[in-house]
Amino acid sequence: MSVSTLQRPPVEQPVRTGRRRRFTGQSMLFLYTWLVIIWLVIPIFVMIAFAFNDTHGRYNQSWEGFTFKWWGKVFEIEDLTKALWTSLIIAVISSLVSAAMGTGIGYALGRYRFRGSGTLNVVMFSTISSPELIMGASLLSLFVSANLGLGAVTITIAHIMFSISFVAAIVRARVVTLDRSIEEAAADLGATPWTTFWKVTFPLILPAVFSGILLAFALSIDDFVVTNFTAGSVTTFPLWIWGSTRVGLPPQVNVMGTMIFAAGVLIAVVTNIRSRQGKRDR
Amino acid sequence: MNRVKRQLAPYFLVLPGGLWLLLFFAIPMIAMLSLSLQQGDVVYGYRFTFHWQNYTDAIDGYHTQLIRSLIYAAVGTILLIALAFPVAYWIAFYGGRRKPTYLFLLLLPFFVSFVLRTISWRQILTDEGPVLHPLKQLGLVPDSYHLLGTPEAVIGGLVYNFLPFMVLPIYVALERIDPRVVEAARDLYANPALAFRKVILPLALPGVFAGVLMSFVPMASDYVNSEVLGSSSTTMIGQVIQSKYLVTSDYPTAAALSFILMAVLLIGIFAYARALGTEDVMKVAAR
Asked: Which of A9, A32, A112 is nearest residue B87 as measured by Cβ atoms?
């Protein structure tokens, strides 16, 4: 056994091969990865491009020249604007509520050993891995059986339900890695458990709670399947798009889609940079 | 007093969220099971009569769509592994400091609404679209050739939409591999292919299984791709359930169909959880 197996080697390539063979194999993989990324980005590119399409007919299908005019008229379709607002409000409420509930579960699972934690784990795993169709169908079955009217409230209930487990998983992952000695130090200095939690522990898990909120928001605003089952006559942004696919989508949808895309990417990049800076400072 | 408080703390923390999951995840399943055994119609209401015939009717009427969905999802899963493994492998072993950037690029589609990006594919694949139009102009494909409405288009859409669910778990598994283990294999005279087969592949397998679970289940129950990109000959079980619930209000049959689909998928899910545990899936969810 050589020395290099005993010490972690600084090289990133785990497999030592002939120089030329490694080069070709690696560059082929590199090319392949980029081809996949390009394939993933093509529809996004098309969506953005058609937000700038100077279309005149009902269909925004073929390219007719570049224009900014749809950006000025983005809120001119009343139903669509209303649908976008509905989506935003539901996303804000459901992300905050699910973050609060999910943080409770995540913290408890990460910190304590208690009876029922196994069951809770199974339930969380089930909500994350069970198909949206089944969740939507079963919720509708409940609402129909209980004679509950469908609408924004039932959508919000459903969104909170499927977001809780994701937030809990994120928070638990953070709580598990916390250094207990910091809390012990606080206790040694005379802080009550309550003070210790809010002054020491909570600030440490706050980044995880924050990413939980962002994920829950993203899940909610994008959700189509569960929403479709629980909406009744209320229309959210994805439902509006679904409803008008047959007649053809107006360019305003592309503009709004582009705006949501840009906002999402911006938030993701900013939080990523900030968390990296935070790591460097620590 | 304080000790009691400490022991009760986790229950208080879990209570609101746990109650919510009980009320709106567990109980709805029971409601659906009950609905699937009821008889009646929308106007006169439903009565619980242990009407097992709903199940036999559902299987008799829609086994074609059910089997088709499972086949599409299976083909899609195989394609996903072929697409995702090399990508995850390259990022995990050669991504260097750019790893987060590459993962971010792979997640970009998630910043566009699921429905919207599927419709975007329809815009691309349509007869007048940027792919077929030039080919037809040049006479390279016959006028009667279509991409939309084919099983290939539906499976393509499924693969596109669920690729990140396969890449991420495989990446997580590969990233965990200690390079020293591979080194050791090489030192013991394994050639690269053998080291890959005997060391990397077995260690990556849990990630592949997690990916299969996370993509097969949503693909088999999807109805957006087959609705937007497919035709009447590619109808999937999700479309049937969706239209029975929301269009024809045939709740008992719809509930029975949902249960059959869920039973098929649940067997897979729980076999997975039993054999491999819930850790990998949770880890990917937490990313």
From this structure: A32
